[in-house]
Write a structure and sequence with these properties.
Belongs to the iron-containing alcohol dehydrogenase family. Hydroxyacid-oxoacid transhydrogenase subfamily. With about 500 residues, this protein is of the alpha/beta class. The protein has 17 helices and eight strands. The protein has two domains: about 170 residues, 3-Layer(aba) Sandwich (Rossmann fold); about 240 residues, Dehydroquinate synthase-like, alpha domain. The chain has a six-stranded parallel β-sheet, sandwiched between helices. A two-stranded antiparallel sheet has the order 6-7. Helix 4 links the parallel strand 2 and strand 3.
């Protein structure tokens, strides 16, 4: 646990900047020319006159500037318990499935989770085929290979057994089996793809996670590397979410310590980012049809409950799960935390850590993580999101100091005498100390092999991630200013 005696002494310049940012975002001035329209969690209703001024009065109302007024809560059905995997065959019988495509990877294919799944389907007399070539951290080419396998088999249901890469791949196999005529980019998030809504139901998908990190068993999001653009992207729509997630703690006991750490860091950032995302009723544009309401909607009263609970559990149990392979209680609690965070971020969304993580992973200069048995360089997703976290939450704290202080308190910091303008420094330091104590973590982008000369490419790869950047508090909406802020965050993340 982080020492409760942490007191950070930022430089005079940083202290002044933090104070100015806190004043700007927490107490915006009444002058409509200077009032910050992106004020985070400012729930006071502005007058209709001020709203007119912000719309420049002389121009008609622009529907694209209309703020959201509602949020939706969507998550997969979840079954949690040791040994629950053996029920999966009965689940497919109950769903009326006759022909199942099992999706996994070459490592998980050898584990007991797959054995339990295969035996379950066999007992029920359900026909199945197995695709076991999922790529860890998928590329568009590996996704297309998987889709090409599924289409001619014409399954009536899918079963994913594995980590987030497996579950995400299964989601896209399901999508493009139901939409065989679609171009691959039709549903990919704009601006890299067309971002079309999914307007017909998909086939049943049961997800059995074998890692405790992505929460993919709860969400309608699937992520992959679009190689031609040198950036990760994906497809996000609530129709993609699994029909059922079977969270069996027995299935995570085979994870190496380094994989526990990397996947757990994804949980950490899922919870922190969704907890600090802009509120749902500050997001624009308001959808003209509910089918266009995005899966990532901004922080809301329901997602907040899941996100904060997941953060507290991760701080408590992740170090135990990493440091003691026989601590099955901690492993079980981390699987539950991953699922809780999945419900939270699957509806609220994530922002800067994830937005910058996608080019960090896809532009990997050659780093190969020791905990993953793969034949290619890999920066695990959890590592790529956590490496910028100290800088990110120093930056976003001015949007809502109280919320960032609550996050710091979850790390064990005594916040009773911390000034609100110091919230970012305190939370950033608490995150950095947590990462250091976890052990064997890269201490910034330099440890992943990146140099200062690489940062412009990382900025270029982050800019298209508008699906998540739009949820980032305090981030400028003017392109050049946004680029400058992202560059600054990446520079600060070179080492910590």
């Amino acid at each position: 646990m982080v020492s409760p005696a942490i007191r950070v002494a930022p430089s005079a310049a940083n202290r002044a900047l933090n104070l100015l940012r806190t004043v700007q975002y927490s107490h915006p001035p009444n002058c409509p020319c200077h009032k910050n329209p992106s004020h985070h969690h400012n729930h006071k209703q502005t007058s209709s006159l001020l709203n007119h001024v912000k719309r420049r009065m002389s121009t008609p109302i622009d529907p694209s500037r209309e703020k959201e007024y509602a949020f939706e809560m969507a998550a997969s059905s979840i079954r949690f318990g040791p040994g629950a995997t053996k029920e999966v065959g009965m689940d497919f019988t109950n769903l009326g499935a006759k022909r199942v495509c099992i999706v996994t990877d070459s490592n998980v294919a050898k584990l007991d989770a797959m054995k339990q799944a295969v035996e379950g389907l066999t007992r029920e007399g359900i026909e199945f085929t197995i695709f076991d070539k999922v790529r860890t951290e998928p590329k568009d080419s590996s996704i297309k290979e998987a889709i090409a396998f599924a289409k001619p088999y014409k399954p009536d249901a899918f079963l994913a057994v594995g980590g987030g890469s497996v579950i995400d791949t299964a989601k896209l196999m399901n999508l493009y089996t139901v939409f065989p005529e679609a171009d691959f980019l039709d549903f990919v998030n704009a601006p890299l793809g067309k971002g079309l809504p999914v307007d017909r139901p998909l086939l049943p998908l049961v997800a059995v996670p074998t890692t405790a990190g992505t929460g993919s068993e709860t969400t309608g999001t699937a992520i992959f590397d679009l190689v031609s653009k040198k950036a990760k992207t994906g497809i996000a729509h609530r129709a993609l979410k699994p029909t059922l997630g079977i969270c069996d703690p027995l299935n995570t006991r085979t994870m190496p310590s380094a994989v526990h750490a990397a996947s757990g860091l994804d949980v950490l950032c899922h919870s922190l980012e969704s907890w600090t995302a802009i509120p749902y009723n500050e997001r624009t544009p308001r959808p003209t049809n509910p089918i266009n309401r995005p899966a990532y909607q901004g922080a809301n009263p329901i997602s907040d409950i899941f996100s904060l609970a997941a953060l507290r559990s991760t701080v408590k149990y992740l170090p135990r799960a990493v440091h003691d392979p026989d601590d099955h209680e901690a492993q079980s609690e981390m699987l539950l935390a991953a699922t809780l965070a999945g419900v939270g971020f699957g509806n609220a969304g994530v922002h800067l850590c994830h937005g910058m993580s996608y080019p960090i992973s896809s532009q990997n200069p050659g780093y190969k993580h020791a905990g993953y048995q793969v034949d290619h360089p890999i920066i695990p997703h959890g590592v790529s999101v956590a490496v910028t976290a100290p800088a990110v939450f120093r930056f976003t704290a001015a949007s809502n100091p109280d919320r960032h202080l609550a996050a710091a308190e979850a790390f064990g910091v005594d916040i009773s005498n911390v000034k609100r303008e110091s919230a970012g420094e305190v939370l950033g330091e608490a995150i950095a100390e947590f990462l250091v104590k976890l052990g064997d973590q890269p201490r910034g982008l330099k440890d992943l092999g990146f140099k200062a000369a690489d940062l412009e490419g990382l900025v270029d790869g982050t800019i298209p991630q508008q699906r998540v950047l739009m949820l980032a508090p305090t981030l400028s909406r003017e392109l050049e200013a946004e680029r400058g802020e992202l560059r600054g965050l990446l520079e600060q993340s070179l080492d910590y």
